[in-house]
Amino acid sequence: MSKIGDLIRRHLKNFTPYSTARDDFKGDRGIFLDANENALGSVTSENWNRYPDPRQSHLKEAMGKIKGIAQECIFMGNGSDEPIDLLIRGFCEPGIDEVMIFPPTYGMYKVVANINNVSVNEVLLTQDFQLDMTLIKSALNNHVKIIFICSPNNPTGNLIQVKDIWDLATVFKGIIVIDEAYIDFTDTPSWIEVLSKFPHLVVLQTLSKAWGLASLRLGMAFCHPKIVDVLNLIKPSYNISGPVQNQVLKALKEEDQMRSFVEEIKELKKELESALNQLPIVLKVYPSEANFFLVKFKNVQEIFQYLIRNEIILRDRSGLVLCEDCIRITVGTAFENKQLILTLKNYLKI
Ligand SMILES: *Cc1c(COP(=O)(O)O)cnc(C)c1O
Description:
Elements: H1 4-7, H2 57-67, E1 74-77, H3 81-91, E2 98-101, H4 108-115, E3 119-122, H5 133-139, E4 144-150, H6 162-171, E5 175-179, E6 201-206, E7 219-223, H7 225-234, H8 242-251, H9 255-277, E8 282-285, E9 292-297, H10 300-309, E10 315-316, E11 326-330, H11 334-349
Parallel strand pairs: 2-3, 2-4, 4-5, 5-6
Antiparallel strand pairs: 1-7, 6-7, 8-9, 9-11, 10-11
Helix pairs in contact: 3-4, 9-11
């Protein structure tokens, strides 16, 4: 692989980032007259008058323990969508470099690349939603700086084969991102465990799914400290607000609750799957390792609109390659799943 320092965009190599007022002093105690805050307090009773820790050190300490990883290998963002953006902006020269993605997959990689005027090299997944290694190898070229792999993949729900990712990580010289937004729902180990073998690997995770904290906006990139440095260099200084840091710190103590949610969701998922499979309008429920299913329907558009009229909102994925006639369904509560199935049964009677 190439050195991280060689992969970073040229104009960032000698770039001086914004230094925050508190970079020169690390303690918590002192008389702080350096940041033009309101020293008297907040207009509300909360203590929100001080700028938050730009490096989230308490949070990283707690996260590092949970994930078994050194703090220097953790970057935190406003959702994992933020590191997706920062990686592209840090490593891809607009108009010159490319990112490689494998549709059908999470839409944000392409959107962020487009916003940054970075070309997207798309190689379709195979019919069973795995990497097409032959096509990928012939599509790779010197301008591909980042490869995004989503596993379990959204919207298909399946894991990408370990040996293919391993193979890619061995031949590709740029940055390989593995988006593990749904890893907590699976029984497979995270790619975090092999970070030391592959210094150009970035593992993305989020608190938005299994942890149930989507509203707080906290995502993580686990990677070599040199990549963390690049992300820190270009991130907005205070990208994680103080209240969010405090709430997440509390929430991270509830890992057991997260695990029991996961177990409950798995049960609900089994019931939903068998109920869907009994409906004649359902052509296929794709196997899923995540908390959602990709489902192929007869009369997909009519059913989607009918459900909206009945205030049941699913994600229409029928416009995506290899997802013709498919809708993505998130596992809901027992009540919500039952309503969905009832409503679909009523459609059959119309
Ligand atoms: C939901 C999701 C995310 C991220 O979300 P944030 O809420 O921004 O952390 C990232 N990747 C995939 C594949 C997702 O499905």
